[in-house]
Amino acid sequence: MKEALFCIPGRLNAAKEGSPLIEVKNLSKRYGNVEAVRDVSFSVGADQVLGFLGPNGAGKTTIMKILTGYHFPSEGSVLVDGISVEDDPVEVKKRIGYLPENVPLYGDFTVDEYLAFAADARLIPRGERKKRIEASLEACALGDRRSRKIETLSKGYRQRAGLSQAILHDPPILILDEPTGGLDPNQIIEIRSLIKELGKRKTVILSTHILPEVEAVCGRVLILNEGRIAAQGTAEEIAGTMKGGDTWELILKGAGAETIKARLPLLGGGPGIGTVENAEDRTVRLSFFVPAGSRKDLVSGERIFDWAVACGFKILGMNRKKLSLEDIFVKLTA
Ligand code: ADP
Questions:
Q1: Which of 56, 163, 186, 316 has its CA 20 to 30 A from that of 13?
Q2: What CATH number has the domain spanning 244-322?
C-alpha cells in the first residue's frame, strides 16, 4: 500500500522531547574525490529562519539535498524531528517542503493543474486536496494567476508557484535553495517578505550567496566555505567571535598628525590606531579600531568629543563603522 505523504503528525516528536527540529552531527559528503561537505554540525529549533551563506561550491545545495532525503551522508548523522534521514526518508519528506534551485515546473500546466499534479504526487487524499491547494495559493498570493499557464508567468510568479508546491502538504519545515536567484529587485523584495511571513509559522532554511538576503530574512546564519562551517550564529554573535568592533574615522583640525597621535591614549579604552595622516587644509585624518567587548563601551562619540575639546582639536567629521556581515564574509571566504 502506498503511504500518504501529506499526513504530518499533529505534534512533532522533537517538540514533545524539547529537542531541536533538525540536528546535524559531523556530516560529511563525498562525490568521488570531491569532498563537498566536511564535518558539519548544527541544529535548528522550531520557527527559526536559518540562512546558509557561502560562495558557489561551498556545499549549501548538498546539505539541503541530504536534509530532504535526496542524498545520503557519507559520514555523520542527520535527524529531522528525531527521525534519521537514512533510516526513514519518507517520514522525513512528510515534514519538509523543498524548493530546489531549479524547480521543475511544467510550463504547459496552469497553476491549478500543476498544484493538482503535485497533490497527486504527494498522495494527498482527494478530500483534502481542494483545501490544501486553496491554502497554498492564498499563502503565496497566487490566486489571481491560478488559471494562467506557468510558461506565461513572470519569474517571480513562477517562484511563487514553486513555493506553493513546497507548502502544499503544510510541512513544518521549508528548505529553499537560492529562492531569489534570477529575480529582479522588486520580485526579490516580494519573495523575501513571503518567506518572512512563512517563517513565522515554519522552520525555514534558505541558501543564498547574497548577503543582504541573510540580513533581511534570517535570524541565524551559517557561513559555509569549501564544505566547512566558517562561522555560525546571529550576525552580532559572529561579529563578536570574529573579534569585531567599531572603526572610527575622524577629521580633526588644530594640531598635526604627530601631536594627535601622541594624545590618542588620553581617550582611554585602548583603541588600536589605524592611520593618522596630514590631509588638505591643515586637517588630520585619523582612524582607529575599537574591539568589541567591554572596552568598546569606553569609547563613544561623546567621549571623543570631550577628548578633542580637552586637547584643543576641532572635530570636522566623525564616522563610526561597524564590522558588517559583508566584512565578515569576505574575511572568512576570500
Ligand atoms: P553550493 O550549493 O554551495 O554551490 P554544492 O553543494 O552544489 O555547493 O557543491 C559543493 C561541491 O560538490 C562542489 O565542488 C560541486 O562541484 C560538488 N558537487 C555537487 N554535486 C555533485 C555531484 N552530483 N557530483 C559530483 N560533484 C558534485
A1: 163
A2: 3.30.70.100
For 64-117, how does the pLDDT look when each residue is reduced to its tens digit (9 = 90+)?
Answer: 999 999 999 999 999 999 999 999 999 999 999 999 988 778 889 999 999 999
* Short-list 85, 70, 71, CA closest to 24: 85
Regarding the beta carbon of 62 and ligand 1, being less than 6 Å apart is answered yes
CB atoms near residue 179 (< 10 Å): 26
pLDDT digits (tens, 9 = 90+) for 154-175: 989 999 999 999 999 999 999 9
List the grid coordinates of 60: 549549501
Does residue 70 line the site of ligand 1, with CB under 6 A? no
Res. 321 pLDDT band, cuts 50 70 90: confident
Mutate to test the pocket of ligand 1, among 37, 52, 53, 62 (most ligand atoms within 8 A of CB): 62
Q: Which fold has domain 3-233?
A: Rossmann fold (3.40.50)
231's grid cell: 562561522
CATH 3.30.70.100-classified regions of the chain: 244-322
Enter the DSSP assignment of 311. Answer: H
Distance CA 142, CA 182 (A): 19
Q: How far is CA 76 from CA 24, 42, 315, in A?
A: 8, 12, 57
pLDDT digits (tens, 9 = 90+) for 246-265: 788 999 999 999 999 888 88
Residue intervals in the chain for CATH 3.40.50.300: 3-233
Instruction: Show the DSSP H helices in 208-324 as ranges.
Output: 211-217, 235-241, 257-263, 301-311
Helices (H), 180-300: 185-199, 211-217, 235-241, 257-263
